[in-house]
Specification:
alpha+beta, 3 helices, 3 strands
Length: 81
């Protein structure tokens, strides 16, 4: 069974759209980025906006997952203060 630190370190979330897939860790750090052929047809500024939006989306999901992991071991009143 993994300890708390290992469970938090294992948090990863993925988001995809317009031929772009991002994976972020618990801290919202981009750990993987891939482009499918569809993404090559998008203008650079639009592509950058898609990547930013997906990273933000995945980071919010990763944070929620991290909070869920913490909720298993930390009293709720300590998580909301």
């Amino acid at each position: 069974m993994m300890g708390l630190g290992e469970r938090l370190d294992a948090v990863r979330r993925e988001a995809s759209a317009s031929g772009v897939t991002v994976v972020v860790d618990l801290h919202g750090k981009l750990v993987d980025l891939s482009f499918m052929r569809e993404a090559l047809a998008v203008r650079p500024a639009e592509l950058a906006a898609v990547v930013r939006r997906l990273v933000d989306e995945a980071a919010a999901e990763a944070l929620a997952e991290g909070m869920s992991v913490l909720a298993d071991v930390v009293p709720p009143e300590l998580l909301t203060s």
